[in-house]
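I have a small job for you when you get a moment. Would you make up a two-line entry for one protein for me to read? No commentary is needed, just the two lines. Write everything out right here, beneath this request.
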Amino acid sequence: MGYVRVKGFVGSPEKVRVEEVDFLVDMGAYYTVLPPELTEDLAIRPMARAELLTADKRKVEAYLSYAYIKIGERDGILPVAIMEAPEPCSV
């Protein structure tokens, strides 16, 4: 698969707080990963905990939740993983 960088918006599911961010997107990924500091700022609350498998085959623990995401003309409330990452990206 490939990686691309895109500008988009992320916020709480209720869209109370929304922020423009740069995403690093892996076309073969399932979850959008948001750093814990960003989710705290945007009032995105963890809802569950899960074990995820990264591209390099590592198993990592992450919190799961939902967030409002808008990229281009498309937007919606999507599942996200909350875990340490240098920037919003996908796993």
